[in-house]
Design goal:
Number of helices: 9
CATH class of the domain at 99-185: Alpha Beta
Strand content: 5-15%
Strand order of the largest sheet: 2-1-3-5-4
CATH superfamily of the domain at 99-185: RNA-binding S4 domain
Largest sheet: 5 strands, antiparallel
CATH architecture of the domain at 99-185: Roll
Shape: globular
Low-confidence stretches: none
Order of helices and strands: HHHHHHHEEEHEEH
Number of strands: 5
Length: 209
Amino acid sequence: MARYIGSVCRLCRREGLKLFLKGDRCFTDKCAIEKRAYPPGQHGSSFRQKQSEYGSQLREKQKVKRIYGMLEKQFRRLVSEAARRHGPTGEILLQLLEKRLDNVVYRMGFAASRNEARQIVKHGHILLNGHKASIPSMQVRLNDEISVRESSRGHPHIQTALEAARRKGTISWVEVDPAKLSGKVMGEPKREEITLPIQEQLIVELYSR
């Protein structure tokens, strides 16, 4: 499957804000956007563009895809699923994104970033309800239990991520037991806990064209 393998800091600079793609580094003064808060490229520092309505919608979609590490086909499928469900399409879309297995692993503090969580899942370090789960895009459900495989509990990246999670705290819709390296989905993701400046209605409008 195609996947972006370039510098993720360039993605943050292109969107003009931190997307938190490199874990703890994003919280330090080493973050690239702290030093160069303009788009990458030869003309980045002098880049000026008045965006059209379509341009704003497109940038919002690209930003959210980059935050959650998704390709267009996957993202379009989630938008269609959100549109079929009863309720505000934009809010449901964010809930579906948050309930991806890789994102839940990140939210529980078992990985420093969503990209790292995706790798941990793919490499078979995660169990879902006691069974090996290696598909990052799997949707978790209420009362699902996510845990780190016993043989992987000493993994240095997982231990480092847990240490960082203790400082930052976890979200209310998951319950985590750091001693057992396991967690449980206790409810639906809450919109107010997604603190990045996402305007989901622009994405809905884009796909409604």
